[in-house]
Each structure stands twice: as C-alpha cells, then as structure tokens.
Amino acid sequence: MDPASSTLGSFPMIEDLESIFVTEQEIRERIEILGREITNTYTDADELTVIAIINGALLFTADLVRHIDMPVRIDCMRVSSYRNDVNPVQEPEIIDMLRLDLEGAHVLIIDDIMDTGHTSRRVIEEIKKLKPASVRFGVLLEKEGRREVKVKPDFVGFQIPDEFVVGYGLDFAERYRQLPCIGVLKPELQNPPTFV
Ligand code: IMP
Ligand code: MG
C-alpha cells in the first residue's frame, strides 16, 4: 500500500511530512501482535486496568484495547511533559489524575512514546502509591538512545531513531495527531509562527 494513502480517507497533511517511519498498515499489524502479547501476559488476571496518558496515547489505546481479549477498565491521566516545541520540561506535571480505584488492580499504562523516560517514571511513581497488584508500561514508540532515567517499557510497538515525529496520536503543537501513519515533519514546518 502507498504509505501516503489510507483506508480511513485522505489526509492532505501527510504532505507536511518529510519522511514516514511507520505506515498505517505496519501500525495495525503490530497492534494485533501487541494485543495478543498483552492478553497472554495476564492469563491469571480477571481484569486489566488500562491507563492512557492523554492526549498522545488516545489513538493507540483505542486501537490496542480492541485487541486485548479480557475484561478491561479504562481511565486517563493527563501529564504535561512537552511545551509547544521539541524540548521537554524536566519534571513532568500531572495535570489530571485518575478516577478509578487501583488497589489490587493489574495496571497497564499506555503512552505514545518513551523518549527521555521522565514521563513514565513520574507516572509509574504516582500509580504505585495507589497499591495496584501489578504495574506495566506499554508504548507505541521508543527512542532508546534518549533515555535519561532508568525505566524500560514492558511492551513496545516500534523502535525509532532520535527524531521528532508526529502522527497517530503524536503532535506538534496539538496538530497532526489524526494522521494514520507516523513520520517526521518537514523542517520548515517545525516552528511556524502560527503555531506559537
Ligand atoms: P519523555 O518524558 O521524554 O519520555 O517524553 C514522553 C512524552 O514526550 C511523550 O508522551 C510525548 O508526548 C512527548 N514526545 C517525545 N518525543 C516526541 C516526538 O518525537 N513527537 C511528539 N511527542 C513526543
Ligand atoms: Mg504525550
């Protein structure tokens, strides 16, 4: 399939990408496998509690939970770790906390990407305070070379190079999240004044 075409319709914003790292089809196929891996990991559990770190994990979580073959509860956490540019703030802030009771629950936290690892470390720390039975972390993308803290995801979709990517939930200034594939923006689009 042409990486720029989608079964979901046409996405003119794909033309803003300089290159595509992961196609829609690759994402779909990988998510099916991840869903099976996750299901097999929790064969002894009655239920799984999936926590999506929004906004980035919105699309990935929505597709992934439909491939997890067991009862699932879903909640969201909002964490700010990026400004409107490509530089992370060092200490991520939890802006919106969960509503669910996690005591004794098997928790799977889902994020779009693990970069420096600060966001994951901070979220895991908060979740552990709520006395869950287990905590695991799943990400669609991992930039392995960028890790600044000791944290390793339990489930990874794809390893990607150290470049700022958008699409399939990942944004640049809240744009491009709806793209069905993942790629790098053209350099001239990485800081247009209209986005500030
Ligand atoms: P970390 O705390 O450095 O691991 O960064 C995690 C968060 O930074 C993710 O949840 C994303 O929101 C954001 N992020 C990291 N790399 C990218 C990228 O290449 N594109 C878009 N967002 C990114
Ligand atoms: Mg994010």
Q: Structural class, please?
A: alpha/beta
Q: What order do the SSEs take from the amino end to the carboxyl end, as H and E?
A: EHEHEEEHEEEE
**Beta strands, count:** 9
Shape: globular
Task: Point out poorly predicted stretches.
Answer: none
Strand order across the largest sheet:
4-3-2-5-6-7
Head-to-tail CA distance between termini: 35 Å
SSE layout and pairing:
Blueprint (H helix, E strand, L loop, with lengths): L16 E6 L1 H18 L6 E7 L3 H8 L6 E11 L5 E9 L9 E9 L3 H11 L5 E9 L12 E5 L5 E2 L15 E4 L11
Parallel strand pairs: 2-3, 2-5, 5-6, 6-7
Antiparallel strand pairs: 1-9, 3-4, 8-9
Bound molecules: inosinic acid (IMP) and magnesium ion (MG).
Question: Summed up, what is this model?
Answer:
With 196 residues, the protein is of the alpha/beta class. Helices cover 19% and strands 32% of the residues.
Would you mind describing this structure in some detail?
The protein has three helices and nine strands. The model has no long low-confidence stretch (mean pLDDT 91). The protein is globular and about 50 Å long. The protein is an alpha/beta fold. Strand 3 and strand 4 form a beta hairpin. The strands form two sheets. It has a six-stranded mixed beta sheet, with helices on both faces. Bound molecules: inosinic acid and magnesium ion. Magnesium ion binds at residues 53, 56, 112.
